[in-house]
Amino acid sequence: MSWQGIEGHDDVVEQFRRTLGRGRLASTYLFVGPNGVGKHAFAHKLAQTLLCQTNPPERLEPCGHCASCQQVQAGTHPDLIVVAKPDEKSEIPVQLLIGSGDRRMREGLCHDISLKPFMGGRRVAIIDDADYLNEEGANCLLKTLEEPPPRSVIILVSSSVDRQLPTIRSRSQIIRFAPLADDVVASLLLSQGVAADHEEAQRLATYSEGSLARARELAGAELWKFRAELVSRLAEAQFDSVRLAKAVLAFVDEAGKEAPPRRARARRIVTFAAEFYRQLVRRLTGVSPTGDAELAKAVEIAATNWPAGGEDAVACVERCFDALAHIDRNANQAIWIECWVDDLSRLIARKAA
């Protein structure tokens, strides 16, 4: 089922339906779950529901036509406060929470949420990118969470409970958003014109990890061209690790000068390799591999040429997970790529010898 165009979160919808029906809306919510599954959209639709001037909140059906609904859609509602990390910043500036200079505590989210609602209902604040709250910002927010203004609701949108301070977690009602099912992701990709056909939609959904945003990022033809080259080389009995490392490094560099897109591309490459070895483990243990025809062909070639055993294929999967951890820790790009590819080669070569 779909709620207000948001797919895959029927359990969350029903939770809020019960909560609003009993009149027990909390003052602070922490939405957690993978990026790209609909948390941001859900937070804004919930805000529209709470601020709608026509339908009561317990119906969970904002009319979409009243002045309040239209202002929420336009991002101009005086009782809706949205804070997000600016693109050029690595953290949410504390000034967005408490103001700056001589305006400190006279502007910013913590001040604005305490004001009387302009349109007579309630005030709603959404902190998007809450993962990027630094310790100072979180501590500034804490007093507001401890003593929430009447008829106010604060929604923090985060990827993980662990990304928030314990003091923030303890004062929030946690709402968990699960990854979207592959068939939901595939259906959305087709309906939005991201995928040309069902086969492409399923392939993107398989690697999306339940995230529509990640599936969109995977839609580039150049990425799949490199995936074909990658799995073809990995399928060789003994591949040239130096040559492959150079190819991986060059492809990551093509993502641009900014670190986030480079890291994102690096993660996709390592994830492709991890999936290749995971399917190889299935094949070597007598279980039919899954995935698209291109991957299945590479896995079959690898199984025929594989000089090691199933345990070594598992070790290759684990080494890919280690590489993902290095990416998340912002390790030197050239070093981790060279070490990762060389280790994969060594895991195979030691058995071949």
CATH fold naming of the largest domain: Rossmann fold
CATH architecture descriptor name of the largest domain: 3-Layer(aba) Sandwich
* C-alpha geometry: elongated
Could you tell me how far the N terminus lies from the C terminus, measured between alpha carbons in angstroms? Answer: 55 Å
Structural class based on helices, strands and sheet pairing: alpha/beta
CATH structural class of the largest domain = Alpha Beta
Question: Radius of gyration over alpha carbons?
Answer: 24 Å
The biggest beta sheet is recorded as:
5 strands, parallel
Q: How many E-type strands?
A: 7
Average predicted local confidence, pLDDT: 92
Features:
Zinc Finger, Delta Prime, domain 3, 54% helix, five-stranded parallel β-sheet, 16 helices, 3 domains, alpha/beta, single chain, 7 strands, 353 residues, Rossmann fold, two-stranded antiparallel ribbon
Describe this structure in words.
By secondary structure, this protein is of the alpha/beta class. The chain folds into three domains: 2-176, Rossmann fold, CATH 3.40.50.300; 181-218; 220-352, Zinc Finger, Delta Prime, domain 3 (Up-down Bundle), CATH 1.20.272. It is built from 16 helices and seven strands. It has helices at 10-21, 39-51, 67-74, 95-98, 109-112, 135-146, 166-170, 182-191, 198-207, 212-217, 221-234, 241-253, 259-284, 293-305, 310-328, 333-352; strands at 2-3, 6-7, 28-32, 80-83, 123-127, 152-158, 173-176. The strands form two sheets. The chain has a five-stranded parallel sheet with strand order 4-5-6-3-7, with helices on one face. It has a two-stranded antiparallel ribbon with strand order 1-2. A hairpin with a 2-residue loop joins β1 and β2. α12 crosses α13 (259-284) and α13 packs across α14. The model has no long low-confidence stretch (mean pLDDT 92).
